């Protein structure tokens, strides 16, 4: 093997640049030429492919976003478009591709694998919703960002004796809500993986007030509903002087945490190691602090991400 390529796709997450750096530096250390594909699968099909040099990677480990950029490209679901992408890779003499991204990005790598092109997926998404791994690149940074914002909002809630409902990202998974909610001492955490009882939550707020706590904080995952919609439901059960806030895209950007930088470095280096061993068609992950690689077809078609809903029980035991 002489040439490999790397792309980032889907929503950006802090640590993607660190993963691109790791793939590239590990490949160069092994004597490979490494190419970057700009704008994800769109750039792949259009041939926006450039060779990466060591200087291109300087300082990237600390920067958020993705310097290779990303673009939505639903056309890649079509077989004819996938084959055009493979033609571009072969035209550049590229023998394997590393894809960094979330669920949609993985499905692109899955399609290439089914066509016989050697592809490896690295989980890069704040949502932490990829099967085959305990954690994805960007999740820790997003949780830290959400936690800081929740702490600030809690200060205002306490100052004005209000109830704040804060919507965090996560797509269809409740991981960001769970981790940030526990970290800030939320009074209730609402996630897609479990039903909720609006009356029970109203009762929690009332009980807080009866015991002298005049403010409350509710964290809701975007996969359940919007903060505004939840506020309307809650207001039907009492006057809690409630406010709804959506944190939005601030959770996706910013300098990656040390944990995300290290995780990205481990994943990128491991991906190159597997390719040098002649292995492909794999999805990389980490489980019980050990790196793992699973068949990407089996991982996506037969497995689902499992949110640790027991964390919600933990929060319920520890709240006021």
Automatic annotation (TrEMBL):
It is an enzyme of class 2 (transferase). Allosterically activated by ADP and other diphosphonucleosides, and allosterically inhibited by phosphoenolpyruvate. Mg(2+) binds at residue 103. GO terms for biological process: canonical glycolysis; fructose 1,6-bisphosphate metabolic process; fructose 6-phosphate metabolic process. It catalyses: beta-D-fructose 6-phosphate + ATP = beta-D-fructose 1,6-bisphosphate + ADP + H(+). Residues 3-275 form the Phosphofructokinase domain. Substrate binds at residues 125-127, 162, 169-171, 222, 243, 249-252. Pathway: Carbohydrate degradation; glycolysis; D-glyceraldehyde 3-phosphate and glycerone phosphate from D-glucose: step 3/4. ADP binds at residues 21-25, 185-187, 213-215. Catalyzes the phosphorylation of D-fructose 6-phosphate to fructose 1,6-bisphosphate by ATP, the first committing step of glycolysis. This is ATP-dependent 6-phosphofructokinase. The lineage of its organism: Bacteria, Bacillati, Bacillota, Bacilli, Lactobacillales.
